[in-house]
């Protein structure tokens, strides 16, 4: 999996979490003014995702 940063038609940036087969798993709901801001947000998601609750089996 990897985070991909993409620019939308309004010039804003979003992160996308993409599986190795190209399937998109998640997209930032927030727009960012720069690719660096989107990368920082993706890094924050990556750092904290393991402590998220609600997906217990």
Summarize the structure.
The chain has one helix at residues 35-48, and strands at 2-7, 13-18, 24-27. By secondary structure, the protein is of the alpha+beta class.
Folded structure, characterized:
The protein is α+β, with helices and mostly antiparallel strands. The chain has one helix at 35-48; strands at residues 2-7, 13-18, 24-27. The chain has a three-stranded antiparallel beta sheet with strand order 1-2-3. The chain is globular. The protein starts with a strand and ends in a 9-residue tail after the last helix.
Topology:
Elements lengths: L1 E6 L5 E6 L5 E4 L7 H14 L9
Antiparallel strand pairs: 1-2, 2-3
Strand order of the largest sheet: 1-2-3
Helix fraction bin: 10-25%
Major beta sheet, specifics?
3 strands, antiparallel
Query: What percentage of the residues does DSSP assign to strands (E)?
Result: 25-35%
What letter string, H or E per element, gives the SSE order? EEEH
The helix count comes to 1
Distance between the termini: 22 Å
| Overall outline | globular
Low-confidence stretches: none
Computed Rg: 12 Å
Instruction: Give a count of the beta strands, DSSP E runs of length 2 or more.
Output: 3
Structural class by sheet pairing and helices = alpha+beta
Mean pLDDT across the residues is 93
């Amino acid at each position: 999996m990897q985070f991909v940063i993409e620019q939308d038609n309004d010039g804003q940036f979003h992160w996308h979490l993409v599986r190795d087969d190209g399937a998109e798993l998640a997209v930032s709901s927030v727009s960012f003014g720069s690719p660096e801001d989107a990368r920082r947000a993706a890094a924050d998601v990556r750092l904290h995702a393991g402590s998220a609750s609600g997906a217990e089996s």
